[in-house]
Specification:
By secondary structure, the protein is of the alpha+beta class. The strands form eleven sheets. Strands 8, 9, 10, 12, 16 and 18 form a six-stranded mixed β-sheet that branches. Strands 23, 24, 25, 27, 31 and 33 form a six-stranded mixed β-sheet that branches. Helix 1 crosses helix 3 and helix 15 (714-726) crosses helix 16 (747-757).
Length: 851
């Protein structure tokens, strides 16, 4: 402050008469000058001649932009001016000395002997001070000129930028460029003191304090500034605070700090990119809010890794463990160090360990997990306590077997997995200023596996009704009881933390209805009380659930039994085959788990499981029925009905053909029986012979029962054909016959019945036509059917072997059994013997009914 009252009054008077400078900011934040009008009342109250006062103060003309105006720059200049003013000012002019010890002893003695003059001087001074206080504004009373703060930064690839003023940004934002040096200075201040600053520099640390425009940092060394402290010294520190904040790599703007506090970061390796500095009058109410504007890396962690043992300690944000090496983390320890003078508090953590589960909480360097037991870490929780928890959030994420990096968790939340049996392979832990955004995605920081208890399903079964819910993977419905499953519903409990969220949807293909709409969350798919079978189902997942899981399902279908597993909306069951679902199983399986157990074959059929290519005989798993068996027996007819007539007439042992001998015998029988002697056997003659009407129709139009179904394989069909042929083994050879296994037949008749049982209709070849005149050799017509012909050398079980006469005409057919053996009807009965034998040795070719 000024050294005496006289000098103070002199300076105040000068300020009143000079053109004062008031500083404001334009829209860009740059200082502007503005001339103010002298208050006339203040001019009139001045008792000292203006020009004389200007001379006494030694000021001359004032320059608003000059630093040599009303503010004297050096202590010597201030002292000289005050001394000059004191010498030219007398007590009679009402100016009081501020420091009594500085008054000349002679003057003091003179004043003591002149009380009247002293009283008069005090009165004049008091009146002057009163007038000035009444006329002066508060701004005029407290400061004549606002201190001016300027600063500039040296930026990577740019160099020195232009000077910035109070509150402006120096540096860059969004350009990823480091600050390398800084200079700050104050000017135009009425107050003694200076501005000092120090910087924390890459590879150097904290440099010494600099002041008033000196360079802090480095040039031409490509070293980043990482933190800064700024403070005021001297008298100006009593009236002003210095506020500042920095823009740092990865985080952006940190909160303001003030008066020598550190701003930026230490031990994180983060560059300063920008800075703002503000000079604020104490208690003015315009100061920015301050916070924790300095990040100090006090977090360190180490661990124990499979086959590597103990691994060295790393700092905040670093990766501990391995990635891509498939090694489990077995232990973890975390600590805070370098906390002295920074903050108080500690860090706590616990681990979820294979076969153990959650261990107790550890802290400040204690080991969580195990060593020497080959047990994997699966999840962790970490949290801060004390003052440090008010400065930072602690974020952490883990690298997990099969999933890789999960999302970031924070402040005690679980990170990792449980229920999957997946190992933790690496971890990152990072301190982040309180309330700031996470270092990355926070999605799916913790994954908990669904259990079978979380998935349940129930249904409605034929003749049983509603059945109780079963757990995931269990069988709903019946097996081996021939009961249809008519409806079902599914429920999924996803309420536990860490479970992927979403829903499970399903629908059914129902008899006479087809595909219904999608259902979910316990709604019934299918029907109840309508007696309708479910034939197929589809099940799918939605939401996050679909990202992490497959839903597998399979059905037990009529004829097929358990079909293969379907997944994620695929069809399971059958359609167009009229087959019922009898039971179902459903499972949730993590996508990252092995899926091999569910690769079990085809899950859905809308055609037969096996079918010949379209150019060949088609398989129809439908029972063949023949009509037209009630034909009369006239000349040339053959087969079983002829065989029975001959037996009645005593002609056994003859070929079963209506020849002349047989016809004459029939006429004689008809005459004896009072029937019209036509020689043709009709139903009346048949019945007169003592045979039934049903046999009349049946014996001439028999088709073997179907042994296959839509679920049958090629092998099933072949074995069905052969097993039917074996039913006739030993039965007599009867020309033109093709009846049931209680009777004889010929070679073509045997093949026809074998094919019927395996789902092939050899039409137009049939037992009815085979009995007619001219169709004795149906083997020739069988050869011409659309079957695949293969070389004899490629013959397989189930093929048909055709034989020929010496002139090349096809005369016989047999069923190949393999190992060069056939089953055939010739010469006297159905036999199994070598392909080539004394009766048949000329092979015409091979036809394959099941391709």
């Amino acid at each position: 402050m000024m050294k005496c009252a006289a000098a103070w009054v002199l300076a105040f008077a000068v300020a009143l008469t000079a053109v004062p400078v008031a500083y404001a900011e334009d829209a860009a934040g740059n200082p502007e000058t503005e001339n103010t009008v002298q208050d006339e009342a203040v001019k009139e109250a001045a008792t000292v001649d203006q020009e004389s006062l200007n001379d006494q103060a030694g000021q001359g003309d004032q320059n608003p932009d000059s630093t040599e105006g009303s503010v004297l720059e050096t202590e010597d200049e201030k002292a000289g001016a005050e001394e000059n003013a004191a010498q030219q000012t007398t007590p009679g002019e009402g100016v009081e000395t501020e420091n009594p010890a500085a008054v000349d002893p002679a003057v003091e003695s003179e004043e003591q002997t002149q009380p009247a003059e002293e009283a008069q001087a005090e009165a004049v001074q008091q009146q002057t001070e009163t007038d000035v206080q009444e006329k002066a504004t508060p701004e005029t009373e407290q400061e004549a000129v606002l201190p001016e703060l300027t600063y500039r930064t040296h930026v990577q690839d740019i160099g020195w930028q232009s000077w910035k003023q109070d509150g402006e940004m120096a540096g860059t934002s969004g350009l990823y460029k480091r600050l390398e040096a800084i200079e700050l200075k104050l000017s135009k201040s009425d107050y003694e003191g200076s501005i000092e600053y120090q910087t924390h520099v890459q590879n150097i640390g904290w440099q010494g304090w600099k002041r008033d425009g000196q360079l802090s940092g480095t040039q031409a060394r490509a070293l980043r500034l990482e933190a800064i402290r700024i403070r005021l010294t001297g008298e100006i520190a009593e009236y002003y605070d210095i506020y500042y904040r920095v823009h740092i790599q990865n985080y952006g703007w940190l909160p303001y700090v003030k008066n020598g506090a550190a701003a930026g970061s230490e031990a994180f390796g983060l560059r300063l990119e920008g800075i703002e500095v503000k000079l604020v009058k104490k208690d003015e109410g315009t100061a920015p809010a301050v916070g924790y504007g300095f990040l100090k890396n006090v977090l360190y962690y180490s661990g124990h890794v499979q086959t590597l043992g103990n691994v060295k300690e790393v700092k905040s944000g670093s990766v501990l463990g391995t990635v891509g090496q498939y090694k489990r983390m077995e232990a973890l320890s975390v600590r805070l160090k370098g906390m002295d003078g920074y903050a108080s508090g500690n860090i706590r953590y616990q681990a979820h360990v294979q076969n153990i589960g959650w261990q107790g909480w550890k802290q400040n360097g204690s080991s969580a997990g195990t060593t020497g037991k080959a047990l994997r870490l699966e999840a962790v929780q970490i949290q801060l306590d004390g003052e440090i928890a008010q400065i930072y959030d602690v974020y952490y994420r883990v690298h997990v077997q099969n999933y890789g990096w999960l999302g970031w968790a924070k402040n005690g939340a679980v990170s990792g997995t449980s229920g999957f049996g997946y190992r933790m392979e690496a971890i990152q832990i990072q301190l982040v200023p309180k309330g700031w955004k996470a270092p990355g995605s926070t999605a799916h920081a913790y994954l908990k596996n669904y259990t079978n208890n979380d998935l349940t399903y129930s249904g409605h079964v034929q003749n049983v009704g509603n059945v109780a819910a079963v757990k995931g993977g269990a069988t709903l419905g019946t097996v081996g009881k021939g009961r249809r499953l008519e409806g079902f519903s599914i429920n999924l409990n996803d309420s536990a933390d860490g479970l992927a969220k979403g829903s499970i949807q399903y629908r059914a293909h129902v008899q006479d209805i087809g595909w219904q709409g999608w259902k979910q969350e316990g709604t019934l798919a299918g029907t109840t009380g309508q007696g309708k079978r479910m034939e197929a189902v589809q099940i799918r997942l939605t939401g996050e659930l679909a990202s992490y899981y497959h839903v597998y399902y399979r059905v037990h279908s009529q004829y097929f039994g358990w079909l293969g597993w379907a997944k994620d909306g695929e069809s399971a069951g059958t359609s167009s085959l009229s087959l019922r679902i009898e039971a179902i199983q459903i499972k949730l399986v993590p996508k990252k788990d092995s899926q091999s157990a569910y690769q079990t074959g085809k899950a859905y059929y809308n055609t037969y499981r096996y079918q010949n290519p379209k150019q060949y005989l088609q398989i129809r798993h439908v029972q063949k029925t023949l009509s037209g068996g009630g034909y009369n027996l006239s000349r040339g007819y053959m087969g079983l009905k002829v065989w029975y007539v001959q037996r009645k007439l005593g002609l056994s042992g003859r070929r079963a053909i209506m020849d002349s001998t047989t016809i004459n015998a029939v006429r004689n029988y008809q005459r004896r029986s009072g029937l019209s002697a036509t020689g043709v056997v009709d139903l009346a003659t048949w019945k007169k012979m003592g045979y039934s009407e049903s046999a009349w129709y049946h014996l001439g139009a028999y088709a073997s029962p179907l042994k296959t179904n839509p679920a049958s394989t090629r092998s099933d069909c072949i074995e069905a054909m052969i097993s039917t042929a074996y039913q006739y083994l030993g039965n007599p050879y009867i020309i033109g016959a093709s009846g049931d296994p209680n009777h004889g037949l010929d070679c073509s008749g045997l093949v026809m019945q074998a094919l019927y049982s395996a789902g092939i209709d050899p039409a137009p070849v049939s037992p009815i036509r085979h009995s007619r005149p001219g169709y004795e050799y149906e083997c020739r017509n069988l050869w011409n059917l659309p079957m695949k012909h293969v070389p004899y050398s490629q013959r397989q079980r189930g093929d048909l072997i055709f034989y020929k006469s010496a002139n090349g005409t096809i005369i016989h057919v047999a069923i190949y059994l393999g190992n060069n053996r056939v089953i055939e009807s010739w010469p006297n009965k159905v036999v199994v013997w070598p392909v080539q034998n004394s009766h048949r040795s000329l092979i015409a070719g091979v036809a394959r009914p099941f391709v």
